[in-house]
Amino acid sequence: MSEIILFSGIYLVGIVISAFSQVLLKKSASDSKNSSFIKQYLNIRVIGAYSIFVIATLLSIYAYKVIPITLGAILGTLEYGLVAFLSYVFFKEKLSARQIIGILLIVAGIIVYSIHF
């Protein structure tokens, strides 16, 4: 059981860095709206964000050696809430009531699944 907890933690680290990568991509997109195609897609933020995505993917693949696919899929849904939270922190984006309810439903689903698991 402790092995599942360890590998679930590895998977969660991948989720966290993937969420930061998405925020980095969003920052790059907002900063280069009127730039050329090459400046939009071949800048340090975009390359860095996709490099981080590769690391997150490798962590996920490694974690799936131990954790069940169903648990990984459930844990993966945490990324939606994390990206919304990071967008609020870094971009001061407001969350609508529907978005907050959606995030709470995702978390509630994870809790219900965890109790069953």
Brief sketch in words of this structure:
The chain has helices at 2-31, 37-41, 44-63, 69-76, 78-91, 97-116.
Counted by DSSP, the helix tally is 6
- Share of helix, binned: over 70%
Gyration radius (Cα, Å) is: 16 Å
Low-confidence stretches: none
Task: Quote the average pLDDT.
Answer: 88
The biggest beta sheet reads:
none
Helix/strand-derived category reads: mainly alpha
Strand fraction: under 5%
Give the beta-strand count: 0
Number of domains: 1
What is the CA-CA span between the terminal residues?
A: 12 Å
Order of helices and strands: HHHHHH
Note the overall shape: flat
Question: Care to describe what's here?
Answer:
The chain is mainly alpha-helical and 117 residues long. The chain has one domain. Helices cover 83% and strands 0% of the residues. The chain contains six helices and no strands. Helix 1 packs across helix 5. It is flat.
Topology:
Blueprint (H helix, E strand, L loop, with lengths): L1 H30 L5 H5 L2 H20 L5 H8 L1 H14 L5 H20 L1
Helix pairs in contact: 1-3, 1-4, 1-5
Which terms would index this structure?
6 helices, mainly alpha, single chain, 117 residues
